[in-house]
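To start, an entry.
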Amino acid sequence: MSEITLGRENAAVRSASNLYRAVWRWHFYAGLLVLPFMITLAVTGALYLFKDEIDAAVYSELKRVAVEQSKATPEAMVDAALADFPGTAVKYLDPATPESSAEITVATSDFGKLAIYVNPYSGAVLGALSDRGTVMWTIRYLHSLKYFGDGARMLIELAGGWSILLVGTGIYLWWPRGRKGGVVTVRGKPKNRMFWRDLHAVTGLFVGLFIVFLAITGMPWSGVWGEKVNEWANGSNFGYPSGVRVDVPISGEHLDHVSKTSWSLEQARLPESSATSGTPIGLDRAVETFDRLGLHRGYAVAIPGKPTGVYTGSVYPDDASQQRVIHLDQYSGEPLIDMGFADYGAGGKWMEWGISVHMGQEFGLANQLVLLAACLGIVLLAVSAGVMWWKRRPAGSLGVPPLPEDPRVFRGLIAILAIGGIAFPLVGISLLAMLALDWAGTRVLRPRLA
C-alpha cells in the first residue's frame, strides 16, 4: 500500500473521529439541557393519557350517576347550582354519557369560578370543585408548565427543539459502522458502563421517533413559536378562515376566553347577536338547538353574559374529525357560525390531529398504551444517560466529551443546528448561548486553569 493511500485512509479516519467527537459533544449538551424536562414531561404526560379514567375514579361521587327515566332541564340544573352556590352561570357542560353528571360553571364573588356537578335526572347538586381544579387539570398544567406562569411556556419550545437535536445526534452516534453488538441488543451487565451505553442507544432507537413526534405536536403550546403560528393559522385558509360560511358581526372577544377550545381556534373571534334588546331564547332552547344540529354529546355551552353575546356550543371529542363549534344568536336562536374540522385548512387539520394523538385520544386505548410505552421509554432513556455519564465522568469534572482535533468539523454541524434555530427562535438563541459558553470554556477558562 502506497504512502499516499495510507495517508488518505488515516485522514479519513481522523475526519470521522473528529466528526464523531463534535456530534457527541453536542449530544451531551442537548441532554444536559433537556433530560430533566423530558423526565417531567414523560411522567406527567403518561398520567394525562388516562385523564378520563383517573378523574372518573377520583371524583366518582361527582361525575358518575345512576341512569333514570326522567330528566331535569338545563335551566333547572343551573337554578339548582345557583341556589347552592350563588353567582353567575357562565357555562353548561352536557353529560357525555348516560352515566355522566352535568357540570355548571358558576362565577362566584367569594370562591371565584366553581364547577358544580348536578345529577341530570333528579336535578340534585352533587358537589363542587374549583373550576379546572381536578387532579388531571393540575397534571395538565404541570405538563405544559402553565402551572409556573405563562413565561414558563417558553421552556416548552426549548425542550422540544433541543430534544429533536438530541434524537438527531443520537441516531448518528448509534449508527453501527460495521459494529454488531449494542445495535439492537444490550451487552454486559448493569455494573458495566457498556450495559448502560447499549441500553441507552437501543432505547433511543425505539423511542426516538416518538420523541420527535411528541416534540413537534407539543410545540403549539410553546411561548414564542406556538403563539406566532397560532396567529398565522387563524384568519387564513391555512388554519381557520374568519367568518366561516356566513358574514356576521365579529366582536373583539376570543373563543378561548369563554370556553375550552382546540388550539387552532384559540384566537378565533366570537360573533355578536344581531339585537341588543328583546327576549333571549334561554339555555333550554339553545341546548335543544344544539341537539337538533347534531352536536356531539359532551359539548359545552358558553352562556352569554351581555346583550351582544351569543350561545356558543363547542365539543372536542377523542375523534378530532368530530370537533365542532356553533354560535347561536341569543335572541333569534339562529346559527351565526357553524364550523367543524372540515372547515379547517390543511395546516389546522394536521395540527389538531397531531394534538389529538399527542393527548392519547385519537385511536382509543391503543393510542394510550403506545404513548405510555413511549413515555416509559423516555424515562429509561434519561435514567440510562445519567448512569452512563456517572460511570464515565472523571473525578471532579463535568465529563464533557473531548473537542475534535480539527475544529473545522463544527462548521457543518453548526450549520445544521442553525436551521433548527431559525425554525424555533428560542432554540436558536439558546444555541448561540451554548456556543458562547463552550468557546469560553475551551478558549478562556481552560487555558487559565492549565
